[in-house]
Design goal:
Structural class of chain A: mainly alpha
Shape of chain A: globular
Mean pLDDT of chain B: 82
Strand order of the largest sheet of chain A: 1-4
Distance between the termini of chain A: 23 Å
Low-confidence stretches of chain A: 344-348
Radius of gyration of chain A: 21 Å
Order of helices and strands of chain B: HHHHEHEHHHEHHHHHEHHHHH
Number of strands of chain A: 4
Helix content of chain B: over 70%
Oligomer: heterodimer
Chain lengths: ~350, ~400
């Protein structure tokens, strides 16, 4: 046993540098060449179709993964409840639409008003979900900030259950149907049957990520977030309001997750109280894969996880997809805990 | 005489200073009297009630085991149900007709008393296998790795349907049989029979109840001895400060690995009993909900304190099966009694049916925020929490002797 552990430690040390990143790329390219390339020639249309599914899933996962990675980057908490914040965001959005009379299976006659309604309601959903997440942080995580690391994590697990419970009381064990609002027109691209909704999701997600990136890079609050992530004490000394910065981080994470939840509901047609558990774990895997704490890493990881999921559903067997994704999670955490682009986290 | 009178308050003082003793006594008395009392209080339902108690024991066992991992060694294990599943499937495969349906083509029916050790061994090995590469990770990463493991294992059992029957579950699992020399003189209407015709069946659960009580007793003795041993002190040291512990010569890797394996062993133990009692094992029995429930029991009861987690397990099990189970009836009765319209009554009753997750989540969050030491705290742990070894202030050593 001792030699196994020693060998593992050496592997981990060897993989922690640039070599590890190349190993990642190598495995990715090898998987592509061995598993997918032959099938492109067999059936290029299926490949293209699966690719689009994968990119769509990846965009949705990225919206969730950003929340995990930003919160982890700033207070080193695995925000276990984030997946459920995603679901609750989607459900709040569905509720707001139904208040406007936009309910499933009913022809909506809003015509040209659709675009402003969609944008307005989405913005409102982001606001509400963001506030909910800030309240969760203030009530449940902030008092435990100086406790041992496991205390807030256990609280986050409890919070996840509490949120799932609230949704369970709200809607019961049934799927909540979403109205079919995103314009869905199918068109053919090189023979593959592509839905405009998939394009919308990808475009919206990419747009939000660009906005987030410029916010973190260029705005004053973004600068404060980066400073807090680097060194909380030093940031305090520089006059940064830590509590406010952390709240802003939770707000942004939840707002992005809420958009993700709404898009998920539109795309898959429904949400259930436990949708966020599975989606959240996949998104967390994405964040870990890319290097938790790293925003670009989370997006990259989400893309990879989305593609893995789509290609395994398409070419392999869907019952094994979760096993493969959790396997990736365990392998990455064991062999290269910093992920692909991750910041260097000391092993405490 | 005077000495005897004086010793009584002394006993109370000791009990007050060390609530563990009192809790153990109450637990022992309850365990002894429960089957009898139940038969007097509620004769029609006595079998069901004893059955429930025997099932609750499974969670008590798991809580004792998870306490070793979380409470003693400070490693958060979010995939504890995986080892439970491994124990249950070990028993189910080797004590039922299942293997005849698999590529092995031969049913195996080994006795319970042997398989309980096999299941413990298999679960402990699985714990060591998972732990060896991952235990060097930081606490929160370890929690997620175990969570991933806990999600993978039931899916493996579900997907490998050639061997495990997949979603169809393994059923008709053998019940434990008493060896003939235990069965002999008590059986067949001997006048001094202690328990007439002691069998393990769902209609006569007293056998399971006694078995469970004995298993729990053995586990308590084992764990308490472990806690007081060199290994137990090493666990606490690792929990408080791994760096300092390793500087003091504690082999942190082995110590953590042992905690992980021993915790897994308890879960395998419980799984084996669970499979035998339920006589059917399906992948749906081992979801994340089970892991969180056990974590909730340990947190509520008092991490690191054996009687505490037992109390926590019993309380949570009671809340889950009695209070939450009966709540819809009560709601209907009360709401109907005060003359609310039927629609409101049924809505309230639905609400009461769905409260499970909310209550669990609330208990976990509120415990962590307001009473992180749990219902029955261990004295050491409480001192650490109130005096705050992690807040950056120095601990006042004057009163600590």
């Amino acid at each position: 046993m001792a030699t196994v552990v020693g060998a593992l430690r050496q592997t981990r040390v060897a993989l922690s540098g640039q070599l590890g990143a190349w190993v990642f790329y190598g495995i990715g390219i090898a998987a592509f060449v061995l598993l997918i390339l032959p099938r492109i020639f067999q059936n290029p249309v299926l490949f293209l179709q699966t690719l689009v599914f994968g990119l769509t899933d990846g965009a949705l996962y990225a919206l969730i993964a950003l929340g995990y990675t930003m919160v982890y980057g700033i207070i080193e908490l695995i925000n276990f409840a984030h997946g459920d914040v995603f679901t609750i965001g989607g459900m709040i959005g569905i509720l707001l639409f139904s208040l406007l009379g936009l309910v499933p299976n009913k022809a909506a006659s809003v015509g040209l008003l659709l675009v402003p309604i969609l944008i307005g309601i989405t913005a409102l959903t982001m606001l509400i979900t963001g506030v909910i997440n800030v309240v969760i942080e203030r009530v449940a995580y902030k008092p435990l900030r100086h406790q041992p690391r496991l205390a807030p994590l256990i609280t986050a697990v409890g919070m996840s259950f509490l949120l799932e419970g609230i949704m369970f009381v709200w809607h019961g064990p049934n799927f909540v149907q979403a109205p079919d609002l995103l314009p869905s027109a199918r068109f053919s691209l090189l023979g593959a049957n592509i839905d405009t909704r998939e394009l919308i999701i990808i475009v919206v997600a990419v747009g939000l990520m660009l906005i987030l990136n410029s916010f973190v890079e260029f705005s004053k609050l973004g600068k404060a977030m980066r400073a807090t992530a680097q060194d909380r004490d030093a940031a305090t000394l520089m006059g940064i309001d830590i509590d406010r910065t952390i709240s802003v981080t939770f707000f942004i994470g939840a707002a992005l997750a809420a958009v993700g939840g709404l898009l998920w509901a539109f795309y898959y047609g429904s949400l259930r109280y436990d949708t966020g558990f599975g989606a959240g774990l996949a998104a967390f895997t994405a964040a870990v894969f890319g290097g938790i704490g790293n925003i670009q890493g989370a997006v990259l990881g989400a893309l990879v996880i989305g593609l893995v999921r789509a290609f395994n559903d398409g070419y392999g067997s869907a019952t094994w997809t979760d096993v493969i994704i959790f396997g990736i999670l365990i392998l990455v955490l064991t062999l290269r805990p910093t992920g692909l682009l991750g910041m260097r986290v000391p092993e405490k | 005489m005077i000495a005897r009178i004086r010793s009584l308050p002394a006993w109370f003082r000791i009990s007050a200073r060390d609530p563990n003793r009192l809790v153990y006594m109450i637990l022992a008395a309850t365990a002894l009297l429960y089957p009898t009392v139940v038969q007097f209080v509620n004769p029609e339902q006595s079998i069901t009630l004893i059955n429930i108690a025997a099932d609750a024991g499974v969670y008590v066992l798991m809580a004792i085991g998870l306490n070793v991992v979380v409470g003693f060694a400070g490693l958060l294990d979010l995939g504890y149900a995986a080892f439970f599943a491994i124990g249950a499937y070990t028993y189910a495969m080797l004590a039922s007709g299942q293997l005849a349906l698999t590529p092995a083509h031969h049913a195996v029916h080994l006795p319970f008393w042997l398989l309980i050790f096999v299941a413990v061994l298999v679960a402990a090995s699985a714990g060591a296998l998972l732990g060896a590469p991952t235990l060097r990770l930081r606490g929160d990463y370890l929690a997620i790795v175990t969570l991933g493991f806990g999600e993978i294992v039931p899916r493996l059992f579900r997907n490998m349907s050639d061997w495990t029957g997949g979603v169809n579950a393994i059923s008709a699992i053998d019940a434990p049989l008493l060896p003939f020399w235990v069965d002999g003189p008590w059986d067949g209407g001997v006048p001094f029979a202690f328990v007439r015709d002691l069998k393990f069946s769902a209609f006569q659960p007293i056998g399971y109840y006694i078995l469970m009580a004995l298993l729990i007793l053995i586990c308590i003795i084992l764990v308490t001895n472990l806690q007081r041993s060199r290994l137990g002190r090493a666990w606490m040291a690792v929990r408080e400060d791994e760096l300092a512990a390793s500087a003091m010569g504690v082999n942190t890797r082995n110590v953590k690995l042992l905690a992980f394996s021993i915790g897994a062993a308890f879960s395998g133990f419980a799984g084996c009993y669970f499979g035998a009692k339920l006589s059917s094992v399906s992948p749906e029995n081992f979801s994340f909900l089970v892991s969180v429930t056990v974590l909730l029991m340990v947190t509520l009861g008092g991490m690191g304190n054996v009687p505490g987690v037992i109390v926590g397990a019993i309380v949570i099990y009671f809340v889950q099966y009695k209070i939450l189970g009966d709540l819809p009836h009560w709601t209907t009765a009360i709401a109907g009694g005060i003359g609310l319209p039927d629609k409101t009554v049924s809505a309230l009753s639905d609400l009461a049916t769905n409260l499970n997750f909310v209550v669990f989540g609330l208990i976990l969050v509120v415990t962590m925020l307001l009473r992180p030491q749990g219902l029955v705290p261990s004295r050491q742990r409480q001192e650490e929490l109130t005096k705050g070894t992690h807040g950056g202030e120095l601990v006042d050593m004057r009163g600590a002797s």
